[in-house]
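Example 282.
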Amino acid sequence: NADAAVHFAKMQGRNNYQFFTTEMNHQASQRLHIETELRKAIKNNEFELFYQPQFDLKNNQLVGCEALIRWQHPEQGLVSPDAFIPLSEETGLIIQVGRWVLQQACMQGAKWISLSQTMVTMSVNVSVRQFRPELVDEVRSALMESGLPPRALVIEITESTLMHDEEATLVLLQELKNIGVQLSLDDFGTGYSSMAYLKRFNLDQLKIDRAFISDLPNDKDDAAITSAIIDVAHHFGLVTVAEGVETPEQVAFLANVGCVEGQGFLYEKPIPVGVFEEKYFA
Ligand code: C2E
Ligand code: MG
Ligand code: MG
Ligand code: MG
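Predicted structure in complex with magnesium ion:
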């Protein structure tokens, strides 16, 4: 009986092992496949930017928008960034994709400022992998080619970017500030959320992660966290933006605790460029 048990365990182990390697091979080939597709996408211009508006919570005025990438896949249709940005980062393809995003968003921002005759801002997400010395020149070129005023460009980074090699990061952030662009800390509260970051780095804007917004105003813990974040952010002179605003009750709460701007499905989902233009700048 004991022998049978050992034999069974070995069989199990072997099967698990086989299953595991098959699964890994499958994953590896899947990744390779997506990587090949991504290279084709870059070559064939299959990316598109959607735009989500941001509003002043007090007077409901449009203050700017965030550019959010989509992949118009020839067979699969619209693919969301969560499905390809991580792999783009791992493979380094994000460098090329990110450069395109910057150029495209700056062009659009410049056009919208001239259409509306107001200083609407254009926010662009920049991932850890893009956050290297070359980024400074990429930003400078995108601004020059588009004619977008530097103040109108908001570079969104996350806490993971700030954790990474602090000294070099400080230098890079300062160089970006010297160009005149604004810096925003995206998804605040989900990473290490060190309040010390707000003291150490010279940022302009803080985006409170949707995770804290979704159960407002009923969740007392999230209410306390949100208003504490807002107070600290304002102490450091940052503009606060609530992400993922979906209800009027959330707006009421946020406005009451002094949050300045909001972005979310209550106002608008991310929409294609033509739709945005027709709705906000016609
Ligand atoms: P993010 O920068 O935090 O962008 C906000 C995400 O929340 C967007 O998802 C947006 O569609 C979604 N969202 C906005 N309002 C609401 C709401 O009220 N409710 C809910 N449930 N969701 C809302 P999306 O467009 O799928 O983008 C996901 C992430 O992909 C972004 O998170 C960002 O980290 C990354 N990403 C998007 N575009 C780019 C890009 O051009 N470059 C890089 N590096 N990353 C990008
Ligand atoms: Mg963002
Ligand atoms: Mg975010
Ligand atoms: Mg995010």
